[in-house]
Amino acid sequence: MSTEPEPGLAPEDARPRNTKVDPIMMGSMEVTKDGRSWRIGTAGDIAWIAGKTTEGFSITTAIAPVFDAYATFYPPDGVSAQAHERAVIDVLTQHTPDQPWWLGYLDTGAHDIVFPLAPKVSLYWNWPYVLVEAGPEQALTWRTGHMRAGQGSLPDLFFPADHSWLVSALWDDIWTDIGGTAALIAALHRNPPLLNARRVGPDEDALPPGLTRD
Question: Could you tell me where the DSSP H helices lie in the chain?
């Protein structure tokens, strides 16, 4: 995992942006979509992640080292992004009590972040994310295209309100990292035809076999 921005962007576009939020906007803010209002997150909603990750190539570069188990996943050959992402959400939903999810969209300057005018929060190397409180169906339908698959919809970062798991894909990675309970990671690992999930120890290189870093 690299701290460098996405290849192909001009330096001024690729450089992590200043993401300080106007103090007036630090309180509760809502946006409207699908005929209802959704709460935009603040730094307090990601405080349990911020500053807790490590540097290097291990999975804890993306996932705070607070979970029982870790894994990576990405679409197998011959499986569409839609089928893969639906399988991911189905497993997560089965292992998560009914509650809101926080969806984070990384502003690379080249990908859909759903609410481009919303205030952003900073995470990792001061990367700017739009963070919105929604749920699994919105995770599958709100965006069009992300860094890992042109037709994919999943947020770049998402987790439930109880923080029982965290899914995160870093700026230049073509796979996704997850930390959660041992039961959740085992469930992901049991569905290789659609998920291509691989268990990873917290000190292991997260790079999946057969993939390369840019």
Answer: 11-14, 81-94, 136-141, 182-189, 192-195
C-alpha pair distances (Å), 64 with each of 54, 177, 214: 8, 11, 23
pLDDT in tens, 49-77: 999 999 999 999 999 999 999 999 999 88
| Full-model pTM | 0.85
Rounded distance between C-alpha atoms, residue 189 and residue 185, angstroms: 6
- φ and ψ at 86, to 5 degrees? -60, -40
Angstrom distance (rounded) from CA 36 to CA 30: 10
Phi then psi for 144, rounded to 5 degrees? -125, 100
Whole-number Å distance between alpha carbons of 190 and 129: 31
Q: Are 9 and 110 in contact (CB under 8 A)?
A: yes
**Residue among 109, 144, 100, 114 nearest 128 (CA):** 109
How many angstroms separate the CA atoms of 143 and 141, rounded?
A: 6
List the one residue out of 16, 15, 3, 73 whose CA is nearest residue 214: 3
C-alpha–C-alpha distance, residues 147 and 171, integer Å: 7
| CA dist., res. 15 & res. 117, Å (int) | 19
